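Let's practice the habit of predicting before peeking. Look at the sequence and jot down your guess about where helices and strands might fall. Then scroll down.
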Amino acid sequence: MEVTLKDIARECNVSFSTVSKALKNSSEISQKTIDLVNKTAKKMGYHTNAAARALRINKTYSIGVIFEDITGSGLQHQYFAKIFDSINVHANKAGYNITFLSHNSSQSYLAQAKYRRCDGVIIVSTNFYRDDVQALLTSNIPLSMLDFRDSYNHSSVMSDNKTGIRIITEEIIKKGHKKIAYIHGEESDVTKLRMTSFRQTMKKNGIEICKEYVKDAIYHDPEESFKATEQLLQEKEQPTCIIYPDDFAALGGIQALAKHSFIPGKNISIAGYDGILISTLLTPKLTTYQQDAKELGRQLVEQLLSNIEYPETFKSETVKVSGQLLQGASIMTI
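Done guessing? Here is the structure:
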């Protein structure tokens, strides 16, 4: 005879809903009760029948994830890898599995999500303005999104890009720099926020931005940063400090500087963004702003599950996640 949640509830002398939440490690239930329920379920030989559960409550406990990678660094990129790991850990802890939806599929994102019966979708990176993505945004599928706010009242989790760039720029200015170059990533809401913050911080400190010092590149693309750095070094008046769009892209800049016998922290200064492991392994150690990837992943899952599991009381919100400055030795005092 199959053991049910009601059987476990009766044995533990708790309610059916308490058992259900305890088996999903819900924060609403005390750890003592969670341990009791799990121990009792194991002793009674309870095994979740995923297919039966999905039919019974019209849920598959499956979360779709969208991640479009422009540069090819993909899931190997340390920043995104931390986010995905955090998403997976917190989704699994709540009893959900994640599945990636493919941009290369013959089906649209919306069609894939419906075909796989995803209870909700987390959007980490995409072109939000593309027609197929807009179709998903206007559907009734619960969503949570990283670094994007739309007009459809979906939840979003934002890394505090404005504060991050302000802190990095202020650190550079504090060390006496005025000829500051900024290589930014491709056009996006994140790029706009960062550029606005850079301009505001420079203006607040009475420093004029040289238009030749602002260069386009692509996030996580060392080759593009190499080219942009080369362009900056051709200027009659070279910048004394260069801000890169991210730590990985900074590697290309470091190669270009080495080609011209420039050593970060010695005869030029540089700063990164993201705070990935590689920034601590460079010589000199890179000064960068570390985004809290683990917290971003946790918040993306938490916002989505609140929508999926409590739709009647759910209210979408924008959650801002702060990071921290990681001091290195790549910015010299002048």
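How did you do? The chain has a mean pLDDT of 91.
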